[in-house]
Specification:
- Its EC number is 5.4.99.5.
- One of its GO terms (biological process) is chorismate metabolic process.
- It comes from Algoriphagus hitonicola.
- With 258 residues, the chain is of the alpha/beta class.
- The protein has a single domain, classed as TIM Barrel, CATH 3.20.20.70.
- α3 packs parallel to α5 and α5 packs parallel to α6.
- The radius of gyration is 17 Å and the shape is globular.
- The structure holds phosphoenolpyruvate and manganese (II) ion.
- The site of phosphoenolpyruvate has 8 residues, from α4.
Length: 258
């Protein structure tokens, strides 16, 4: 199978877009149809949602997986979702999920990453690894190494910023220098920026996305929902598919190499 996260094949940034969470077949189709029609080939959607505190929407779980499979009969796209346990991996593989990512709350825990890594052994599924919630470069590197040691080679990393105490400008501070330093350890690995979770608010998403391209990131993962204000998770930061298209059209090409 052709590698998805092959840097050399990329002439332009890789764009991944889709809802924070999959909420219903209607919400999923209404959101992704315009995205796929815009040319977006990789759709994201949360099935299992790790929430910091209990009581908010934690994802629909496996019941949503057959809907994704059905939608692939109508639209051409690859589907990416977060996995946080061996059970998630097993369920997602059974239902033809194309790409996995490890979330920021999992990357902090070597036991969790190791469990996921073991469950991936023998597969050739592409995996994206988000930075941990805390500003610990070694934890991020270690998570990548664990996935590599399980025999997975089609790997990208996602920079989604780092937790803050109290409200500051960003929901998660970008601390760009950590991403820059990460790159010195894995110069050939695709680095994708997640401006949605860094900014936490719609108005800041374009600025962060442009900054990432200026720093020569290889791609962007951006949350989009057809009615963002009604979203069951991360309502403030999701963009309509139309606004996402405008954002992408207005991005300037990369200027600086690092
Ligand atoms: C997400 O991608 O919706 C998500 C929960 O991200 P993170 O792990 O970066 O918080
Ligand atoms: Mn989200």
């Amino acid at each position: 199978m052709e590698a998805i996260f092959e840097k050399s094949q990329l002439g332009k940034p890789l764009i991944i877009a889709g809802p924070c969470s999959v909420e219903s077949p209607e919400q999923f189709m209404s959101t992704i149809t315009p995205l796929v029609n815009q040319g977006i080939e990789i759709i994201r959607g949360g099935i299992w949602k790790p929430r910091t505190r209990p009581g908010s929407f934690e994802g629909l779980g496996s019941i949503a997986l057959p809907w994704i499979q059905d939608s692939k009969k109508q639209l051409r796209f690859k589907f990416a979702t977060e996995v946080a346990s061996a059970r998630h991996v097993e369920e997602a593989l059974k239902h033809g999920v194309d790409i996995f990512w490890i979330g920021a709350r999992s990357t902090v825990n070597p036991f969790t990453v190791q469990e996921i890594a073991e469950s991936l052994r023998g597969t050739s599924i592409p995996v994206m690894i988000k930075n941990p919630v805390n500003a610990d470069l070694s934890l991020w590197i270690g998570a990548v190494e664990r996935i590599q040691k399980a025999g997975i080679s089609d790997i990208a990393v996602i920079h989604r910023g780092f937790s803050n105490f109290r409200d500051v400008v960003h929901r998660n501070s970008p601390l760009w220098q950590i991403a820059v330093e990460f790159r010195t350890y894995f110069p050939d690995m695709m680095m994708i920026n997640d401006p949605s979770h860094i900014s936490g608010k719609r108005s800041l998403v374009p600025i962060i996305a442009q900054k990432a391209l200026d720093l020569n990131f290889d791609g962007l993962m951006i949350e989009s929902h057809y009615t963002p204000d009604l979203a069951w998770s991360d309502a403030e930061q999701q963009l309509t598919p139309e606004d996402l298209q405008l954002l992408l059209q207005n991005l300037k090409t990369r200027k600086v190499r690092f």
